[in-house]
Amino acid sequence: MAARILNGNEIAADLRAEVAEGVTSLVASGGPQPGLAAVLVGDDAASAVYVRNKGRACSEAGMHSETFHLPADTGQADLMDLIAGLNADNRFHGILVQLPLPDQIDEATIIESIAPAKDVDGLHPISQGRMLQGQPTFLPCTPAGVQQVLLRSGYDPAGKHVVIVGRSNIVGKPLAALLMQRNPGGNATVTVCHTRTRDLPDITRQADILVAAMGVPGAVTADMVREGAVVIDVGINRVGYRLVGDVDYDAVAAKAEAITPVPGGIGPMTIALLLSNTLDAARRTVSV
Ligand code: NDP
Fold first, then answer.
1. What residues have CB less than 8 Å from 29, skipping those under 6 apart?
2. Which of 123, 163, 236 to mutate to test the pocket of ligand 1 (most atoms within 8 A of CB)?
3. Which residues form the Tetrahydrofolate dehydrogenase/cyclohydrolase catalytic domain (predicted)?
4. Boundary (domain end) residue, out of 116, 132, 153
5. Does residue 171 have its Cβ closer than 6 Å to ligand 1?
6. Are residues 146 and 252 in the same domain?
7. Is residue 2 situated within a structural domain?
8. What pTM, to 2 d.p., does this model score?
9. Domain co-membership, 112 together with 147
10. Nearest Cα to Cα of residue 227 among 211, 205, 199, 249
């Protein structure tokens, strides 16, 4: 039987509409218009598209957004100066630094220079540490997007075996932390795999929910998937002019119960969660 397609565009549109309502009521109650500062360094075409889409989504949700575009040869100190200014600028409740950054800039240092109260990407070590401990914080957008797709499609991860392939700081690791929490939306049994994992297919076949976050086109093949599994494809890979995921889509869709497409799966969710975090950041400035 063909898999149910989990339409990230539709789920993200619902979430964005909820955020837009939240913005309207925040402003109506005398709160600030939420503002997002997006920082783009260099001329990477994909990054420029992501930043443009995020800016457009902000205005559609009634938020203010501005993009700060710096040249590719910007030094670390200049970028830190810009971020220090944005940290102090109360028009902006959230700061997003589009990754990857050029080689001369140390990403970890830049992420740590963002004020945790404005870390709407949820990548600051303080945000991630709080998440690991199950405390309220800004959740990283892509992992939170995966969680929302599951919950809003009726696949509560509680009690399920979730296998995540990939252990990056922006996807695999935080997703594992999120889904294992003793909190609603968590309570999964999580296995994290990577390039040093032995007999990967043997482990992925044990997944009730399989998440591919590897950055390798078509790496998850049908023999790696149990009949009836839910498959979440986080990968976004450019192959010629096409965008493809990490999952061999047609063959896996013939076996899975449900699957996210690429494009139109987790990508739009990531943007919706960024908006949701920015609204939360603005709310916090009035509720404390
Ligand atoms: P990274 O390159 O940082 O991490 C990839 C991870 O996958 C690593 O942990 C690596 O293992 C593991 N891996 C790679 N190949 C294999 C393999 N053959 N077998 C087992 N494990 C493997 O990537 P990201 O996490 O940043 O991104 C992953 C994908 O998700 C990319 O396609 C990216 O474009 C996409 N992405 C999509 C987003 C969205 O909004 N939908 C947002 C962010 C990313 P090891 O650690 O051992 O090297």
1. none
2. 236
3. 6-121
4. 116
5. yes
6. yes
7. no
8. 0.97
9. no
10. 205
